[in-house]
Design goal:
5 domains; single chain; 39 strands; DUF4159 domain-containing protein; membrane; transmembrane helix; alpha/beta
Length: about 950
């Protein structure tokens, strides 16, 4: 560029220089201020000057100084800039100027503009046409040819954008535009960043260019953020820098929330010669979930910013199980595989209580995104209402089937479809069908795009009742067309149901990678609460905020169009869908510049057949002079003030009161703060006192200690004295039999009120079902259900075998109807009569049947529990002990004895051996409760066969 190197950004202020002569005249006629003195005749006379020596106007040198000050202020306000001229060659052919204006050019964009302006000035001086192209613009950009003025206006419209350059698209436009031009001189101002299409795009220059000036960029200082993961304890961010022999580098990473408030910072440390580094932002999960943007401090490009949406939030997942747990056999827990699948991706919440009436509100209070229920057949009414309201307000409920749910009532409101009672077995000796594989997931499914593994097979499932909307609610199905996963939107939330158990007893899905992917998709669905599941595989998200080229967020760009997201595909930032947030304020999708595999590599100079000259960007040494001029004016003004004080005689006055001021300062500095002596002594005495021991025992602790120090049997108090007395006498007789025939010496049996008593201390609770007794409350039934889930066993005895046999309808008896009413509120698994080779029939005595005061009613146990050798079902948690036993034979009546050990009631029929068999059956039940399924082990088979006479 030519011309005088000094320029002004506000030249109109130079008009003020015309006022300097007026200022000169005003200063000349204004004499210095007279000297003021206290009246002292002799001192005045001694220094009195002659009248002709008293100045009547300002000295010329003082006037000149003030004129210089005024001139410097005026020039400084006009903002002078020193611009040395650039030296470059004049082009002799049309100029084609190509500029990379992607994210990588944002940090040094003024340097590119200066270089482009210099090249435009050269072409303008040589009267050559100018073409102008930007590689991050759309096809509507005007490219010329321009004259110098039009080219500068077009250049002013080009801005860096938060997208990567598209060289294949841009150079295709260059080739088409310059096809008829006379091999112009091409100047390519690169951003120095390599892309996948560079070789093919730059090869087109051979066809159109006469010569090429190549302006490389140094990307050594660029650092990009390309991935963030919310781990168990920290938000982990991955950064990348260009390859090469680099020194260690430490950068500060700042986390912001949606309101652009800083939440904290972390150090990003690159090791020597390493191109990848990670930073961990340690904070509570609530704070980490509030992070919406990460930015490298002092970086001024979009690559230093990473956006996070709900998909990056670490969701809270609450877990509820209807199965019993056994810490020694974790693989048998219904939640084991769910825990393993979700632990890396979510914060898992487990309730502190097994009682669902306590666990459900406890978990909901922690605001989980997803609640997972494994094999819970029936929830208490209040808990079911709370979860239903939570789902309506946006929660995602994920349920798994199991034996308890398969045998529960079919009026469950927390299922997306109506189920048939019972379960379907696929494969086995009694089945005509083979285990089924998974079909491809339908397009309306949240699992669309996943590829199910071919080796996933399902052996058992619960079946949905046919309905007109069953197809729309099916998210996954088996090869025979039956649903495997169903779901629906309920209010603002979602219900999803797996028709199989979450362990390996029903299928091998839980040990496959497909299971992990399906659970992660479910977590992702929880952030889209309120959005329909969709009937197509493409969703549209309106632009909300766009990422500016300098890495800050701004209102949605004018050219931004809605983002179309297709299931199974990852969208990318383009000119019409720039990086930023899409959606609504309550439901945002973050579109970032890079994927996690992005590597930052330098763009190399292409090998072309036309001459290629490497040039440096124009480094204009523009020097603003405003600060220097205003500073000089301030210094001269200070000098003027000092001279004026000197002429006024101020420096001749004596300094008074200096000594007084110094004394006062010393006194203030020596004022001491002190603690009252009494307070110090009190603190010392308190420290010397010996601490008193704290007694945190409670009145009920004595009863608890007594309960756990000795094994006891227990019974449920019904409120009817006769029934409760028989229960107590019956357990007394069983206690005597255990002490007489085994090494076990139980203490006296105890009656329990399920409303308030702790049941966890008792291995077996006898519950005589009484139709005339008050119906247990929901809280009592929930506590009993929790006791059974945690490994306890309840023996229900309807004591109606004699009545039922005379009526030929056991299910119609009053006690049986009361039992059904109680069990309908519990998670009761499938039941079956004690099989021939069940462990309970051989734990102590060989017992083919279990009579009581009556005989004929079978003893019902949980199906598939405790070592049933003929069952294909695995032994479950709780050491194979059934959590529920049911009989109608009146065990307590047969066991009942008085204090002297004499029987209280005759057996029916009156057979002494029946009472003996009843006591033997009671001993077997207690041994079964205490020892579990150990006798199902093959080690005991020879001894058992010998006793059986085989």
């Amino acid at each position: 560029m030519s011309g005088f190197p000094l320029s002004f950004t506000a030249p109109y202020l130079l008009i003020g220089l015309a006022a300097l002569p007026v200022i000169w005249w005003l200063l000349r006629i204004t004499p210095p201020r007279p000297v003021r003195e206290v009246f002292a005749p002799l001192a005045i006379l001694a220094r009195l000057s002659s009248p002709e020596n008293t100045p009547s106007k300002s000295p010329w040198w003082l006037t000149l100084l003030r004129l210089i000050i005024a001139g410097l202020v005026i020039l400084g306000l006009a903002n002078p800039v020193w611009n040395p001229p650039a030296q470059s060659a004049i082009v002799e052919k049309p100029l084609a100027l190509i500029i990379d204006n992607g994210w990588g050019s944002a940090s040094d964009w003024p340097l590119r503009v200066d270089t482009a302006e210099s090249l435009i000035a050269e072409a303008e001086e040589a009267e050559q046409p100018i073409y102008l192209f930007a590689t991050a613009e759309n096809a509507e950009q005007a490219f010329g040819p321009f004259d110098g003025e039009a080219a500068r206006k077009a250049l002013a419209l080009i801005k860096p954008r938060a997208v990567s350059v598209e060289r294949d698209f841009a150079f295709a436009r260059v080739e088409a535009a310059l096809e008829k031009a006379d091999h112009p001189h091409i100047a390519y101002l690169t951003d120095g960043i390599k892309t996948a299409d560079d070789t093919q795009a730059l090869a087109s220059l051979n066809k159109i260019a006469g010569s090429v000036d190549w302006y490389p960029s140094d990307i050594a200082s660029l650092v990009i953020l390309n991935h963030a993961e919310n781990t168990n304890d920290a938000l982990r961010i991955t950064a990348n820098r260009a390859s090469g022999n680099r020194q260690a580098e430490q950068l500060a990473l700042i986390a912001y929330d949606q309101k652009n408030r800083s939440l904290g910072r972390s150090d990003l440390q690159f090791a020597p010669n390493e191109t990848t580094a990670t930073a961990d932002f340690y904070a509570p999960v609530e704070m980490r979930n509030d992070v919406t943007m990460l930015h490298i401090e002092d970086a001024s490009h979009a690559g230093a910013t990473y956006l996070l949406d709900a998909a990056n939030q670490r969701r809270r997942v609450a877990l509820l199980s209807g199965g019993s747990t056994d810490m020694s056999q974790p693989l048998l827990s219904p939640l084991y595989y769910i825990n393993k699948a979700l632990e890396p991706y979510a914060d898992l919440l487990n309730p502190n209580a097994a009682d669902l009436l306590e666990a459900v509100p406890e978990l909901i209070a922690q605001k989980p995104a997803v609640i997972i229920m494994a094999d819970i057949g029936k929830l208490p009414a209040s808990a079911e209402e709370q979860i239903s309201e939570w789902v309506e307000n946006g929660g995602t409920l994920l349920r798994f089937a199991g034996s308890k749910l398969a045998n529960a009532e079919t009026d469950d409101t927390l299922l997306p479809v109506l189920l048939r009672r019972g379960e379907r077995s696929l494969g086995g000796a009694l089945s005509w069908t083979e285990p089924q594989h998974l079909q491809d997931f339908p397009k309306n499914s949240p699992f669309a795009g996943l590829k199910p593994l071919g080796d996933v097979t399902v052996k058992r499932q619960v079946i949905a009742e046919p309905s007109p909307d069953l197809f729309d609610k099916t998210y996954a199905s088996l090869s025979d067309g039956t649903p495997l996963v169903t779901g629906e939107q309920r209010g603002s939330g979602n219900l999803i149901f797996f028709h199989i158990a979450p362990d390996t007893s029903w299928s091998n899905l839980s040990i496959s990678g497909t299971f992990v992917d399906m659970l992660r998709r479910t977590l992702a669905l929880s952030r889209q609460t309120g959005a329909p599941n969709g009937s197509s595989d493409t969703t549209s998200w309106p632009p909300f905020l766009s990422l500016a080229a300098d890495g800050t967020l701004m209102p949605a760009a004018k050219q931004a169009l809605p983002l179309q997201i297709t299931a199974g595909e990852t969208p990318r930032a383009t000119y019409q869908t720039p990086a930023g947030f899409y959606g609504t304020q309550d439901n945002l999708f973050a579109l970032n510049l890079f994927d996690k595999d992005m590597k930052l590599e330098a763009l190399e100079k292409p090998e072309l057949t036309v001459p290629v000259t490497v040039k440096d960007y124009l480094k204009r040494t523009s020097l603003p002079l405003r600060g220097f001029m205003l500073s000089a004016a301030a210094l001269l003004l200070a000098l003027d003030s000092a001279l004026l004080l000197y002429l006024s005689g101020v420096f001749n006055k004596r300094r008074r009161h200096l000594l007084k001021a110094l004394i006062l300062i010393g006194v203030l500095m020596n004022v001491a703060h002190f603690t009252p002596v009494s307070e110090a002594l009190a603190q010392e005495q308190e420290a010397q006192q010996e601490p008193k021991p704290h007694d945190d025992s409670k009145p009920e602790d004595a009863a608890i200690i007594a309960s756990v120090s000795q094994t006891r049997l227990a019974y449920i108090v019904t409120g009817k004295p006769e029934t409760d007395d028989i229960s107590k006498a019956g357990l007394r007789g069983l206690t005597f039999a255990l002490a007489d025939r085994t090494t076990m010496e139980p203490d006296d049996a105890i009656g329990l009120d399920p409303e308030k008593d702790i049941m966890a201390f008792y291995p077996l609770i006898y519950w005589p079902v009484e139709a005339d007794a008050p119906m247990p409350s929901e809280e009592a039934i929930a506590r009993v259900s929790a006791y059974m889930q945690q490994g306890g066993t309840v023996l229900f005895d309807t004591r109606d075998q004699l009545t039922a046999s005379s009526q030929f309808d056991n299910a119609a008896s009053a006690n049986n109807l009361r039992l059904r009413a109680i069990l309908n509120q519990m998670n009761v698994p499938a039941l079956e009569p004690v099989p021939e080779n069940h462990v309970i029939s051989k734990t102590f005595y060989i017992m083919p049947e279990f009579p009581g005061r009556f005989s004929g009613s079978p003893l019902w146990v949980e199906a598939g529990k405790a070592g049933n050798e003929d069952s294909n079902r695995p032994v479950n948690a709780g050491d194979g002990v059934s959590s529920i036993l049911i009989t109608a034979n009146d065990f307590a009546g047969a066991w009942a004895v008085n204090e002297q050990g004499e029987p209280l009631f005759p057996t029916i029929p009156n057979d002494p051996m029946q009472r003996i068999y009843a006591l033997r059956g009671g001993i077997n039940i207690v041994m079964y409760m205490l020892t579990g399924n150990y006798k199902s082990d093959q080690v005991h088979v020879p001894a058992l066969l010998e006793r059986l006479g085989n």
